Amino acid sequence: MATAELAGKHLILGMTGGIACYKIAELTRLLTKAGATVQVAMTEAATQFITPVTMQALSGRPVYTSQWDTRIPNNMAHIDLSREADAIVIAPASTDFLAKLAHGMADDLLSTLCVARDCPLLVVPAMNRQMWMNPATQRNVAQLRADGIEVLGPDSGAQACGEVGDGRMLEPEATYEAIASFFQPKILAGRRVLLTAGPTFEPLDPVRGITNRSSGKMGFALARAAQQAGAAVHLVAGPVALDTPWGVFREDVQTAQQMHDAVMRAVPDHDIFIGVAAVADWRVDQVSDHKIKKTADKALPTFTFVENPDILAAVAKLPHPPFCVGFAAESGDLEVHGEEKRVRKSVPLLIGNLGPQTFGLDDNEVILFEAEGATRLPRADKHTLARALIAEIAKRLPDASLIS
Ligand code: C5P
Questions:
Q1: With a threshold of 0.70, does the pTM exceed it?
Q2: Measuring from each residue's beta carbon to the nearest atom of ligand 1, which residues come in under 6 Å?
C-alpha cells in the first residue's frame, strides 16, 4: 500500500449480517491506515456478529445502526451520511441485502442510505455457496451490475458452514486492493501491459546458482499500478517473496532464458512492455546435473559463462513492438549510462534507478531518459512512484490522445 493512498477519501462502510463481519475489523484498519475516513453503518443483523463498540474503536467514529438515531439533528441520517461519502462499500453484503438493493428497498438505515446515495456503491458479497448460486441471487447480482454497482468477489474456498465453493468474502487485503483500485483514474483502460520483475536465478548445479539482489518490489508495484489504472496485466516474475498484486496474471520463471521465452510467447498481445527484472547477463554453459563436490586435492571448480538473451532489446527489435520501457540500475554516472543504454536498447523510455542502494528498500528515486532529455521524479515510496511512472508512460503512448 502506498503512503496515504486513500487520503481525503470518505467511505461509508455498510455491514450486513454474516460471519464475514469479522473480516471488516481488519478491512477498517487497512482503510484508515491508508488515510481514508470510515463511517461504519450496520444492520441489526450485523451487530449480532461483531459489536458496534469494536467498529467504533477501529474507525474512530460513532457507528450508526438505526434510521431513528437522535444524534442526527434533522433525523435524516440516510441523506446526511451519504452526501459526505466518496463511496459506499457494503461488506459483507448478505444474500438478503443484495436482494434488497436489486429491488430498491429502503426499510432500514443501510438500505435507505444506498437508495438515497449520490456516490458510487461497491458490494462485497459473502454467503454460503448454495445461496450464492441460487438463481434469484444470480439474477439480483446481474441487476446490480446493470445498475452500475461494483460487485467485488466473491472468492472461492472453504466456508464457515464447512462447505467449499463460491461465495466466500474476499480477504480484507483483497477487498482493500479492490477499493483502492476503484479510486484510481483508468488511464490505461483497454491496454494490455506485460512486465518482467525480480531477479533471475541461473543454476550452477541442482542446489546452487547465481542471482542478484533485486527484490521485485518496484516491478510488482508497477504491475499493481497498471492494473489499478485499468490495464490487463501479465507479470513474468523471477524468484521473489512477494504476493501477486490483486487482479494481475502472474507467471513464475527462474532463469533468464525462461523469462525470455515467457515474454516472447506473451508479447504479441500487448501494447506496453516494461522490463523491470534484473536479468542475469550470463549463465553457465554446462549446468552440472549433480551437486559439485569439494575434492581431496582442493581443486577449485571452473565455470564457462555464456551470454543470456537481452529480453528488452529482443522485444524492442520486433517488427511491431509494444511501447517499450526499460529500467537501469547503475553503480555510477547514471546520467551518462542511462541515455546510452536507452539508445543501445532502442527503447523510447528508460527509467534509471538512482543507485543500486535502492535494492529491497520501499523508497526509490528515478530519472526518466528519453529522446527529448532527462527528467528526475521526486523520491517516493515504490507504490507512489509506480503510479507516477504509469502516468508518465500513459502520456507517452503513441495514441495517448485516445485515452480519456
Ligand atoms: O543491460 P542492463 O541489464 O543494465 O539493462 C537493464 C534493462 O534491460 C532492464 O529493463 C532489464 O529488465 C532489461 N534486460 C533484459 N534482458 C537482459 C538484461 C537486461 O531485458 N538480459
A1: yes
A2: 196, 256, 275-277, 279, 281, 308, 310-312, 326-328, 341
